[in-house]
Every structure is written in C-alpha cells, then in structure tokens.
Amino acid sequence: MKLPEEGALLRIFIGEDDRYEHKPLYEWLVLKARESGLAGATVLRGMMGYGSSSRRIHTARLLRLSEDLPIVVEIVDTEERLEAFLDQIGDAVKEGLITMERARVKLYRGRK
After folding, report:
1. Of the candidates 32, 48, 19, which has an alpha carbon nearest to the alpha carbon of residue 82?
2. For residue 66, what pLDDT is reported?
3. What band does 111 get if pLDDT is binned at 50, 70 and 90?
4. What confidence score (pLDDT) does residue 49 get?
C-alpha cells in the first residue's frame, strides 16, 4: 500500500477498561482498522490521565496497579479513509475523545 505525503492521524482517547463486543475496545478498534485496510494502528497506554466524565486522576502507581489507565489508539491513513472508518466505529466509542489532524507522511515502508 502506498500512502500520499498528505495523510491524516486519527487519535482515539479511551479508557483501558472500555469494552466492545466482549473485547477490550482498543483491541476491537485495531482489528477493525486492519479489517478496513487502513495503513496502520498503534495502541499507547498512558501512565496518568483524566477525562471529561471523571475528574479523578487515573495513574499507574505501584500501590494502585491499573486503575482504568488512559489508552490512545493512533491510526494513520488518508483523511477520506479515516472519515469512513469513523462512520463504522461511532457506536463503539461510548465515551472518550477522538481527534484528527493532518500528518505529513515521510516514510511508510514494510518488510518485503
């Protein structure tokens, strides 16, 4: 697959405990992105954060092993393909934040 230099970056901010169809939501999103033929997806686990529905800080401190830590799913592709993907996943993300921004693709290369 070839990506144009002018791509887009979709970021989906959710909680580690969020689920959809009996799976962690982040896992479901990555599998759905691959099924949709998107260029690539990465899941990042945050060390600390809070969101709009809970002003409580979620942290990875030793005394509190995993308290619904923040998760960010990043997906890169063209803006048009990401917009179509958003139409497919809208019902799955019950709470969180989704952003999209322009991304200049400098290199997209896989193994031969």
Report:
1. 32
2. 56
3. confident
4. 81
What is the domain-level CATH number for residue 40?
3.30.70.120
Cα 20 to Cα 52: distance, rounded to the nearest angstrom: 20
Please say whether the beta carbons of 12 and 24 come within 8 A: no
The whole-number average pLDDT for the span 13-36 is 96
3-state helix, strand, coil in the chain (%, to 5): 20, 35, 45
State CA 55 to chain mean position distance: 21
Structure tokens at 47: 């060390």
Give this prediction's pTM: 0.86
Cα–Cα dist 80/41, whole Å: 16
Task: State whether residue 94 is helix, strand or coil.
Answer: coil
Dmax (CA) for the chain in angstroms is 47
| Structural domain count of the chain | 1
pLDDT at 48: 84
- Residue 11: CB partners within 8 Å, gap ≥ 6? 72, 73, 74, 97, 98, 99, 100, 101
Establish if 80 belongs to a structural domain: yes
